[in-house]
């Protein structure tokens, strides 16, 4: 008799095997998700299989930090992902020093938006185990001159 999949696995929402490994570490998790419009980053702490969000930031928050309204359609770009990671690191700086990365069931290709958010969190001061080959270079993040200046302005405000 074939075993049926758990509902959240069947819906492609949770990989229980990798989640168990992340929970065994006992460290807070940096959860990065991308939607159709935004990048969401959260610091999550788990106790007895109950997740609680300690800190959260979305790329939508960048609009209040100096991101121009005319670029509101690009809040899921690589520069926006980098700044979202930087923002979550600055929010969590006082309480969280170290975390582990949780990308969930998303495809994890090197040098993409997800890893740009990770690079932002690392540049913001969080210690997260990672591979340097997976992170995009800062020159790739700020290759557009308009967003390059914007990144420096917003980082200065945070």
Describe the protein's topology:
Blueprint (H helix, E strand, L loop, with lengths): L6 H4 L5 H9 L4 E6 L4 E9 L2 E9 L3 H4 L12 H15 L7 E3 L10 H11 L14 H4 L3 H13 L1
Parallel strand pairs: 1-4
Antiparallel strand pairs: 1-2, 2-3
Helix pairs in contact: 4-5, 4-7
Structural commentary:
With 158 residues, this protein is α+β, with helices and mostly antiparallel strands. It has one domain (14-157): Nucleotidyltransferase, domain 5. The chain is 38% helix and 17% strand. The chain is built from seven helices and four strands. It has helices at residues 7-10, 16-24, 62-65, 78-92, 113-123, 138-141, 145-157; strands at residues 29-34, 39-47, 50-58, 100-102. A four-stranded mixed sheet has the order 3-2-1-4. The longest helix is centred in the middle third of the chain and has 15 residues, at 78-92.
The helix content is 25-40%
How is the main sheet built?
Answer: 4 strands, mixed
Oligomer: single chain
Q: Structural class given helices, strands, pairing? A: alpha+beta
Low-confidence stretches: none
CATH fold descriptor: Nucleotidyltransferase, domain 5
Number of domains: 1
Q: So what's the CATH class? A: Alpha Beta
The CATH architecture = 2-Layer Sandwich
**Beta content:** 15-25%
Please tally the β strands and state the result: 4
Which features does this protein show?
single chain; 158 residues; alpha+beta; Nucleotidyltransferase, domain 5; four-stranded mixed sheet; 4 strands
Q: How would you sum up this structure in a few lines?
A:
It contains seven helices and four strands, in the order H-H-E-E-E-H-H-E-H-H-H.
């Amino acid at each position: 008799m074939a075993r049926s999949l758990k509902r959240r696995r069947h819906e492609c929402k949770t990989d229980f095997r990798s989640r168990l490994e992340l929970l065994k570490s006992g460290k807070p998790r940096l959860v990065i998700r991308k939607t159709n419009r935004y990048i969401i980053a959260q610091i999550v702490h788990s106790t007895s299989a109950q997740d609680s969000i300690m800190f959260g930031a979305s790329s939508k928050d960048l609009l209040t930090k100096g991101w121009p309204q005319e670029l509101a359609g690009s809040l899921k770009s690589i520069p926006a992902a980098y700044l979202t990671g930087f923002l979550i690191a600055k929010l969590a700086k006082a309480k969280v020093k170290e975390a582990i990365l949780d990308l969930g069931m998303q495809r994890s290709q090197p040098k993409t938006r997800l890893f740009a958010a990770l690079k932002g969190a690392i540049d913001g001061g969080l210690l997260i185990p990672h591979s340097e080959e997976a992170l995009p270079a800062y020159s790739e993040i700020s290759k557009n001159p308009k967003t390059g200046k914007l990144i420096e302005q917003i980082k200065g405000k945070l």
